[in-house]
Write a structure and sequence with these properties.
The protein is α/β, with parallel strands linked by helices. Helices cover 25% and strands 22% of the residues. The chain folds into 2 domains: 14-177 and 361-393, Quinone Oxidoreductase, Chain A, domain 1 (Alpha-Beta Complex), CATH 3.90.180; 194-329, Rossmann fold. The longest helix has 13 residues, at 335-347. Bound molecules: NADP nicotinamide-adenine-dinucleotide phosphate.
Length: 395
């Protein structure tokens, strides 16, 4: 296990990494050279790395995500800076950082080339993003990782990890691993997305999955007056409400696949609805909630589409036009979203699951840490957990 004590680490010559040498074939733990430090980069000792609900289907090829091989697999992580490129201006050796997997071309400032991709997950959608990933392919399922300086976001370890009795927020490091999941919905719901305001009523659909349940918690932390959770599984919906930080502000509407019934369920709640946040998986393309939730919005309402859909879905264009509805698509989040999110976290405005404070939103708790060689059980567990929590690698 990586020590949380920042002192005394020297870089070894080799380290262990979870590698895939042939696309979609089972990965193996290999001993490989530790990456060399280069200008513009940091080498970090990985402490914990996220496993997403669909990691298994990314790496066994069923999801069809494209990436180059050989590859060290990975996702978002918390890691400590072990070495720094000579041009680092702010980061210090020993800093504890959140590693953002959203890689962006440094020479594509305006984003025209769409030179962005997800580290070790997907090579993006342009020639520029594919070129960038061929250079920056290796992810965080390893003891050490080389990361772009601008994707290392420093965490105030004292503030976050010291016990409540000593003026800290009392988190365990694994509690912080909810951040990468909440950050996705912060991208869509925060200031660079549809910008939810205190008092807003927000529909989250579907609300029972890992990103959906994190979005529900985020809305409440950002001051939503009411969160309407839509989902097929009514018992999970009920748990989502009862474990939330403000159960009295959460309402549930079952998804029936019939948009008119879903719409009636929303209207029966009464009151105005400001925002509809969609985080559907691909298989939900025939769900009725796209139309129902858009129809239920107030005049001037906002929609944010973050779901991983490939097929088109029916939308009520007449409603969108007559009610002045704004539709925003969002992929991931911007670097300043990460900064803002960490600031809100360190201020205690956004709270993560924490035994000490009793904040325990559904799906917000780390239920197990896996070694790299336990990858199969780790991926299987992540895919089966739903909103029961999350698992991580501890390389
Ligand atoms: N835009 C972005 O930047 C971004 C970032 C990350 C993820 N995503 C996308 O987010 C999506 C969700 O990821 P996740 O990890 O939260 O997935 P997940 O944990 O598997 O949750 C899936 C959710 O969808 C519901 N669902 C499944 N099939 C459905 C159907 N046919 N009709 C209605 N609801 C259905 C599930 O509810 P049940 O309990 O009823 O099955 C559950 O609430 C993914 O497709 C991913 O691509 C987008």
């Amino acid at each position: 296990m990586t020590s949380l004590d920042p002192t005394g680490e020297t870089l070894p010559e080799t380290h262990l990494a979870l590698r895939q040498n042939v696309y979609a074939e089972p990965p193996i733990v290999e001993r490989i050279p530790v990456p060399q430090i280069l200008p513009g980069t940091a080498i970090l000792r990985v402490h914990l790395a996220t496993i997403i609900s669909y990691s298994r289907s990314i790496y066994d090829g069923t999801r069809g995500y494209q990436y180059p091989v050989p590859l060290t697999l990975g996702s978002g992580a918390i890691a400590r800076v072990a070495a720094l490129g000579a041009d680092a201006t702010k980061l210090k050796v020993g800093d504890l950082c959140l590693l953002d997997v959203t890689m962006r071309g440094r020479d594509d400032i305006g984003g025209e080339e769409e030179a962005s991709f997800l580290s070790a997950i997907h090579h993006g959608h342009t020639e520029a993003s594919k070129k960038l990933m061929s250079e920056w392919r290796d992810g965080t399922y390893a003891e050490y990782v080389r990361w772009p300086l601008e994707n290392c976001h420093v965490l105030n370890q004292q503030k976050l990890l010291l016990p409540l009795t000593e003026g800290g927020l009392g988190y365990k490091v694994e509690d912080l691993m909810l951040m990468p999941t909440m950050l996705v919905s912060y991208g869509g719901l925060g200031p660079n997305g549809v910008g939810i305001q205190a008092g807003d009523t927000v529909i989250v659909a579907p609300a029972t999955g890992s990103f959906g349940s994190a979005a529900v918690h985020l809305c409440l932390e950002l001051g939503a007056g009411r969160v309407i959770c839509m989902g097929r599984n009514t018992s999970v919906l009920e748990k989502l409400k009862m474990t939330s930080v403000f159960p009295e502000r959460v309402s549930c509407v079952p998804l029936t696949k019939d948009w008119q019934k879903d719409y009636a369920g929303l209207k029966d709640l009464g009151g105005k609805i400001d925002v509809f946040f969609d985080i559907s998986p691909r298989v939900a393309h025939d769900s009725g909630h796209f139309k129902a939730a858009t129809m239920a919005l107030r005049y001037g309402g906002r929609v944010c589409f973050m779901g991983g859909l490939r097929e088109d879905v029916p939308l009520p264009l007449s409603k969108i036009m007559h009610s002045d509805i704004t539709i925003k698509g969002k992929w991931m989040f911007k670097p300043d979203d990460v900064k803002k999110f960490i600031e809100l976290l360190e201020l205690g405005v956004i709270r993560l699951s924490n035994e000490g404070t009793g904040v325990q939103p559904l799906g917000g708790r780390c239920v197990k840490k896996f070694r790299l060689d336990e990858w199969k059980e780790a991926f299987d567990t992540a895919s089966e957990l739903g909103s029961a929590g999350f698992v991580v690698f501890e390389p």
